[in-house]
Structure prediction request, 90 residues.
Amino acid sequence: MTMSEQRFAADYGKRAAKCQMSKCKQQIEKGNLRIAKIVKNPFSDEGDMKQYHHPKCLFDAFSRAKSTTKVIEDPGDIEGWSNVNSEGRI
Prediction:
C-alpha cells in the first residue's frame, strides 16, 4: 500500500481498543468514536488490519506530519464516515 493508497475508517467500537498513538496508548472505550488507519497485516501475507486512534490524537499527529504524509482532508477520505451522525453516533 503506497502513501496515496492510505485508507482510514471510522466506527464505534463494539469492544475497547487501545489508541495506537505513541504518546497516548490510552483505552478507547466501547461505543466511542475511533478512527482506524488501515495497514497491511504484518502477521499475514493477505489482508489488512486496523490501527485505532482517538480522533483528536490522529489529527494532532497530522498537524505535525511531513508534507508527503497522507492525511485526512475531507470526510469522504474516511470509510464509514457517512454513518456518523452530528451527535457523533452511528
